[in-house]
């Protein structure tokens, strides 16, 4: 910014004040004296015209008016007849002229009046008038005199002294220069204050505009006056609000787009992982079915027992594949909301007891001690069959990962507006890096152990899909001596049982 608006306004207005002072001083020096003489001549001409309009030849009739002009205009009036005899006025003696310079004619005697009138008689007869500016060295004063002829043929002489105009002009110029300096200083100070007040709103608007350029729309201009700057401030405020709104919308849209891209990438990765996992899961049973089927075809074993074994392997692997495909279809339907939930009110304690009873033989075969804690009757509202599926998957997961202590604990409790069911099994902790991954399809912490009990890695994925469809929480945490899985249910508004 080479020169600010404030500086330019200050310089312009101060320059105008300085120009006005200098111009006035020059005009006063050059033209005041001329204007003074011009004004004196006009007084003589106006007085002459007035006397000429009133005078009919008898000075007594206009004596009062003549005296008024002499006193009010500072004039010396002499009227001469055609023979150059004085009809009005008088020729003062030298002593009187010294005491009153106004009474002294420029020539000092009547003969000079007569000579001048005679020398200009032809012009005077034609109605012309003459004005002279002469200096009286004795009195050191200039006089302006007028010679003219009145309407009746008489002659008139008007004279007025001229003050020391040069001295007056010098005094006037000095005083004007003094007042001009004061005017320049005072005016410059006032201009400085006014320009500061005028440019301050512009600087504020500039500050707001700079912040807007950095996408900072927090500041607003306080409109005090509804002038042009006030209207500009309102426009800046409106623009700031609109830009803030638009950029906020763009940021939200951009964030949503990023989330969509991230989700698409995640879905693409999950799709690739899913295809890889399901290919891996199906590869072994397909290979077994193919191998045993080819063996039957070429009669590798002719005895009936071996043939039955081959057939049992083929059927068992086919059942595994069928179960895997069903779970995949069911998981997909849950995740995409194609299986609507049929929510009812039921007693979660009774459902837990029912699941434990269904798995009683497995518990007995593996010598697992099942403990049910906080055995409360709590009514919940959910899809009965889906929650049963969640319980079965948790119990199956606990059975498959229980250690040599053979302990499984099931706890039911009310937690605020939710019911929480927790299933604990003694065993190894889940690594922290696997806590989130275990809910992903086909993810297995210990792949060798999973193959040993025939797990597909879909059980916890189905739990996740069911709970998300219900809008309820689920999770896992490592406990002392084991692992605890949990899920939540909505409490029922009305009592009812299945």
Walkthrough of the structure:
The protein is an alpha+beta fold and 498 residues long. Helices cover 58% and strands 16% of the residues. The protein has 13 helices and twelve strands. It has helices at 5-54, 59-73, 94-99, 110-119, 121-125, 165-213, 228-297, 304-335, 348-358, 360-365, 384-401, 447-453, 459-470; strands at residues 76-80, 86-88, 130-136, 141-149, 155-162, 343-347, 369-373, 379-383, 407-415, 418-426, 474-479, 482-491. The strands form two sheets. Strands 6, 7, 8, 9, 10, 11 and 12 form a seven-stranded mixed β-sheet that branches. Strands 2-1-5-4-3 form a five-stranded antiparallel β-sheet, with helices on both faces. The longest helix is centred in the middle third of the chain and has 70 residues, at 228-297. It is rod-shaped. The two termini are 83 Å apart. The model is unreliable at 92-109 and 448-453 (pLDDT under 50).
Offer a quick outline of the entry.
The protein is an alpha+beta fold.
Helix-strand makeup class? alpha+beta
Give the overall form.
rod-shaped
What separation lies between the terminal Cα atoms?
Answer: 83 Å
Q: Tally of extended strands?
A: 12
Number of helices: 13
Mean pLDDT metric: 78
Beta-strand residue fraction: 15-25%
The sequence of SSEs as H and E is HHEEHHHEEEHHHEHHEEHEEHHEE
**Can you tell me the residue ranges where pLDDT is under 50 for at least 5 consecutive residues?**
92-109, 448-453
Percent helix range: 55-70%
Q: Sheet with the most strands?
A: 7 strands, mixed
Rg over CA atoms: 62 Å
């Amino acid at each position: 910014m080479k020169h600010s608006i404030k500086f330019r306004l200050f310089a312009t207005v101060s320059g105008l004040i300085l120009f006005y002072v200098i111009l006035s001083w020059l005009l006063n020096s050059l033209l005041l004296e001329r204007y003074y003489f011009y004004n004196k001549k006009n007084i003589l001409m106006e007085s002459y015209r007035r006397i000429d309009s009133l005078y009919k030849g008898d000075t007594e009739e206009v004596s009062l008016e003549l005296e008024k002009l002499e006193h009010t205009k500072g004039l010396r009036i002499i009227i001469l007849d055609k023979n150059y005899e004085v009809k009005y006025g008088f020729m003062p003696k030298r002593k009187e002229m010294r005491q009153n310079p106004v009474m002294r004619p420029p020539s000092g005697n009547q003969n000079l009046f007569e000579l001048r009138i005679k020398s200009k008689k032809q012009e005077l007869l034609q109605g012309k008038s003459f004005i002279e500016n002469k200096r009286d060295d004795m009195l050191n004063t200039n006089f302006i005199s007028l010679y003219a002829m009145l309407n009746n043929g008489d002659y008139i002489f008007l004279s007025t002294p001229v003050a020391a105009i040069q001295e007056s002009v010098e005094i006037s110029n000095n005083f004007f220069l003094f007042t001009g300096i004061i005017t320049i200083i005072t005016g410059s100070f006032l201009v400085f204050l006014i320009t500061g007040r005028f440019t301050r709103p512009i600087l504020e608007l500039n500050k707001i505009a700079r912040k807007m350029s950095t996408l900072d729309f927090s500041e607003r201009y306080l409109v005090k006056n509804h002038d042009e700057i006030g209207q500009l401030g309102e426009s800046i405020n409106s623009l700031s609000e609109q830009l803030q709104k638009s950029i906020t919308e763009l940021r939200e849209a951009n964030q949503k787009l990023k989330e969509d891209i991230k989700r698409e990438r995640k879905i693409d990765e999950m799709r690739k992982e899913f295809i890889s996992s399901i290919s891996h899961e199906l590869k072994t049973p397909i290979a077994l079915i193919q191998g045993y089927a080819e063996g039957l075809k070429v009669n590798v074993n002719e005895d009936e027992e071996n043939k039955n074994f081959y057939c049992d392997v083929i059927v068992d692997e086919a059942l595994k594949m069928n179960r895997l495909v069903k779970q995949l279809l069911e998981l997909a339907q849950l995740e995409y909301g194609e299986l609507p939930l049929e929510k009812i009110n039921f007693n979660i304690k009774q459902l837990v007891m029912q699941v434990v009873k269904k798995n009683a033989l497995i518990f007995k075969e593996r010598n697992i001690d099942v403990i049910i804690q906080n055995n409360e009757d709590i009514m919940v509202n959910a899809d009965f069959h889906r929650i049963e599926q969640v319980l079965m998957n948790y119990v199956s997961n606990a059975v498959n990962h229980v250690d040599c202590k053979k302990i499984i604990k099931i706890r039911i409790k009310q937690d605020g507006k939710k019911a929480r069911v927790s299933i604990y099994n003694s065993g190894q902790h889940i690594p922290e890096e696997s806590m989130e991954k275990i809910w992903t399809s086909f993810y297995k912490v210990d792949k060798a152990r999973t193959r040993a009990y025939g797990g597909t890695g879909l059980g916890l994925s189905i739990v996740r899909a069911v709970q998300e469809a219900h809008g309820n929480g689920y999770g896992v945490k490592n406990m002392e001596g084991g692992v605890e899985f949990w899920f939540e249910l909505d409490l029922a508004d009305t009592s009812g049982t299945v």
